[in-house]
Amino acid sequence: MLFQTVEFLILLIVVLVAIMAIRRRRWQHSILTAASFVFYGWWDVRFLLLIMLSSVVDYSAALGIVKSRRMTVKRRTMLGMLLVGAAVFFLLPNWPEWQAALKAGHMPAPGTPWIAQWSGAFPAIGLMLAIAVLGPLTYALWDRLPDAKRRKAFLYTSIVVNLGVLAFFKYFNFFVDSATGMAGAVGWNISVTALEVALPVGISFYTFQTMSYTVDVYRGQIRPERSLLRLALYVAYFPQLVAGPILRPSQFLPSLKQPWALRADRVRSGCHLALQGLAKKVLIADNIAPLVDVIFAHPQGQSSVVIMLGSMLFAIQIYCDFSGYTDIARAISRMFGVEIPINFNFPYFSTSITQFWRRWHISLSSWLRDYLYIPLGGSRVSVPMTYVNLMITMLLGGLWHGASWNFVVWGGYQGGLLAAHKLLLNVTDRSSSLKRWATTWWGTALRWAFTTWLWLLGWLIFRVTDFGDLWYCIKKFIFFDAVLGLGAAGLGRGDPFTAAGAAAVFCVLHGIDYLLFCRTGKIYANALCTVPYPVRATVYAGAAVAFFFGWPSTNGAFIYFQF
Fold it and tell me: Which residues are catalytic?
């Protein structure tokens, strides 16, 4: 279910009315969890099993870490939930075909259970029996271990299950294809059938989110949640479920200790923030996307100007698409009374690659820092190992974005830049004159320009998946030619003019927003709450006109849904 659809608007109104009408905390949690399941199951109801599995496994693991006897009460509930979810997952006919048939206005014909599409690799009954038997048996075995071993056993079980599910659905075919290709390169003929398994939307986000819960319990930073319902709501919380920000348990679970209530100021502020996010997505990102697709569909033969134009437009597209989703997610949660942390803090105004990663996708970069980089040793180890830790963290961060080698290269590129910047800082710290020059107006401008050039090159690596096309684009980007060659970009179709207008509007408004933030600490959406009503009414009218004329003909999915 997309934010910019009528179906989501209906769901949001139902939830808001329910929160306003029902004041009992448990009933609110039940309604919100059900709404989250509806929101996620709208794509494919069978993938709800994966969210249920993550919730049950991490709920059990956290209680096992602290040796809680709460499990004896909850075991039947969890087992029943998983068995029902498994039956739905493996025995329902092909859900996308059912959706298409229902939209066409007729009942679908009986279909083939989805498990048959896996060539019988994992029989449904065997998997359901495994869930029914192995879960309680594993818990009973780990519960008998000595304290230190028990805690680690439950933690490792949570990590293995979560990463195992993620690896299977997201990376199985990638690893099979890579292994087959490498074997073929050395003369070995290996034939492995790839599985036609759809990638569950948002699986990378909620996998990291639920893993952080178990790790924080193991570290003693939080107490385990005693209610399976509340933990399921934390994992499946629909405003940020499929594209983040990645919520830490300490940022969400405390809000469930008292009933939620709507307040006029929060609803008004949330509406303004949602308006900003929606404008970013549908007026800017979706109007730039067609030209970006034209440029990178067949980039070979394009001039350097076109390649750089495509990189700059994609930079605007991905920022407006992703930060637009985050704005809407934060807005909806703010209406409910739960403040989600910001995920973007004007990253394109960064003057170093390190500062860029502190401002871009903050929830992911901080997650990688706290749960991967620091446990590896961070910067507490020797200088060479610090650089190795940076590279490992960013390589895995790149792979997290997608099952493709260009994401691995992109992660390595970002890790190399971070290591180079850390090395450069060690040099400049020894020279007071160089350090002073770097803070001057000219020094700051040059640092910003060079940083911008670096992340624009990085967006090329991120966007172009074919290595032949990517190598061509990199050469054109680095070794600039003076040929304009704009005709190949599709100027005759009108897309470039729409994209250029959307990009220009973004650059102007984003620059003003940054200046406003530097002066007052507020952004448009927050400042709009304090201006006189006539000014607000004018903004509302202007937004209505812009949406009426600028709304794309089709509702495009958010880019980060595929991650």
Answer: 401
Taking the C-alpha atoms of residue 519 and residue 506, their distance in angstroms, rounded to an integer, is 20
pLDDT of 200-220, one tens digit each? 788 888 899 999 999 999 999
pTM, two decimal places: 0.86
Residue 304: both structure tokens together: 């350097």
Q: Look at residue 347 in the predicted model and tell me its pLDDT.
A: 93
Same domain (yes/no): 239, 335: no
Distance CA 35, CA 239 (A): 10
Exposure on the CB side of residue 548, measured as CA atoms within 13 A:
6
Query: Would you say residue 156 has pLDDT above 60?
Result: yes
Q: How far apart are CA 488 and CA 307, in angstroms?
A: 11
Last residue within a domain, chosen from 244, 261, 278 = 261
What is 371-416 written as a DSSP string?
A: IIIHHHTTTSS-HHHHHHHHHHHHHHHHHHH-SSHHHHHHHHHHHH
Q: Is residue 413 domain-resident?
A: no
Q: What contacts 275, CB < 8 A, 6 or more positions away?
A: 525, 543
The helix (run of H) or strand (run of E) holding residue 537 is helix 533-550
Domain boundary among 261, 276, 296: 261
ω into 113 cis (within 30 of 0): no
Number of domains in the chain: 2
**Parent domain of 114:** 6-185+204-261
Rounded CA-CA distance 285/551 in Å is: 11
Among 416, 430, 444, smallest CA distance to 357 is for: 416
> What is the C-alpha to C-alpha distance for residues 489 and 238, in angstroms, rounded to an integer?
38
